[in-house]
Amino acid sequence: MIDYDYLTPRSLKEVLSLLKEYGPRATLIAGGTDVMVKIRNTRKAPEVLISLRGLQDLRYIRKNGGYHIGALTTHRMIEQSQLVMEELPALHDGASEVGSVQIRNVATLGGNICNAAPSADTSGPLLALDATVVLEGPEGRRTVPVMDFFTGTYMTVRKPEEVLIEFEISEDMGNFGSAYWKHSRRKAMELPLLGVAVALKLSEDKKEILDAKIALTVAAPTPVRATLAEDFLKGKPMTDEIFKEAGRIASSPDCCTPRTSLRCEAWYREDMIRVLVPRMAAKAAERAGKSRQRRGR
Amino acid sequence: MKKISLSFTLNGDAVTAEVPVTWNLLKTLRETFELTGAKEGCGVGECGACTVLVDGDAVNACLFPIPEIAGKSVTTIEGLAAGDGTLHPLQKSFLENNGVQCGFCTSGMLMSAKALLDQNPDPTEEEIRTGIAGNFCRCTGYVQIVEAVQTAAKVEK
Hints:
The structure holds two protein chains of two kinds.
Chain A: E1 5-7, H1 12-22, E2 26-29, H2 35-42, E3 48-51, E4 61-64, E5 66-70, H3 75-79, H4 82-87, H5 89-96, H6 101-104, H7 109-115, H8 123-128, E6 132-137, E7 140-145, H9 146-149, E8 150-152, E9 155-156, E10 163-169, E11 177-183, E12 194-202, E13 209-217, E14 224-225, H10 227-233, H11 240-250, H12 266-296
Parallel strand pairs in A: 1-3, 2-3
Antiparallel strand pairs in A: 4-5, 5-10, 6-7, 6-10, 8-9, 11-12, 12-13, 13-14
Chain B: E1 3-10, E2 13-20, H1 25-32, E3 51-54, E4 57-60, E5 73-75, H2 89-96, H3 106-119, H4 125-131, H5 143-156
Parallel strand pairs in B: 1-5
Antiparallel strand pairs in B: 1-2, 3-4, 3-5
Helix pairs in contact in B: 2-5
């Protein structure tokens, strides 16, 4: 018999004091599309679920200085945000690919990241956009780069008494073009076999790559950055051959450690990294050109 | 098991329910209100047979914790036709375009289609397909369903 209490605090302060009171006996729940499924599938529940849905003021997408996205922002809000689509397009790609409309209407960005599934569709984009998470706990606030947030499959640096409240992305990321590809067998209701996110900053004449960020998901136990491939791209001319070489470097054991799983084999993941990194780099470059045009308007 | 008493709007009527906190919206609709139009297919948010509208947005009722429904407005398939029984344009269109075969997915499919047309009265075929991507139909192959939604969109215009 599944039994638990369900608490609906109305403020962050209340959430923090409940976390302190219940400690490891409590689990946080936001949209519930992971937590409810887990309870049903495992037939196990914590003593209490502490709902974050009452924190309505943590649902926002703002640009002031950098970009700020509240942890309770739904994937649907991101999908429908003109700002995200134009200025952080990889995140738009990822959020729009999660589940179905029904799932995206309730599932939150904070939940997607805190659940820390290796296949999460927003982790690659946030990693490539150099996002930072803001955590609030009894000792106050701290920020952690998304790059350091995941410690393993379904594991993060978030302490049990902390709540993820916001994602921050620096203003400069608006000068990058970015793109995310969810590699899967079906068009919807699917988990990626592999995820590839690339963000590129180009020179004024669009001929040189000034900066590059490449994130791979389902390519290692946690989402990873292919830093060697990024370093290779910096300062290089923008050509197909250069992109191709970046794909080769990104697929090497120096950058990723894909495994064979039920869903596909390691060699296929490796091969697809080699194919998809150049493809996403080209798309990111195309979008970088457009964002430059937009700013010139 | 702890129970919770909550009030919300169900198909336009103010209602109150006293149910265990561990229940979800689907179970409450089916067992407390005997509204059995929304179905449990998978129970984990994959199939969409339980789709209902909460404050106008399509959601999987099977994943919606019941304590979260307090103060919200829920529309189910039973609330889609007019009070006098006149079918909604989508319902008529599904019948006329053979969008219904076994019928198990139909309630959810119609609710997703309604949410789509309410928010986007003139959708492209691709937008329709995205709008119903979370509703599995194992009979029709989707073509007639997409046509039904297209026809209903024209009628409503």
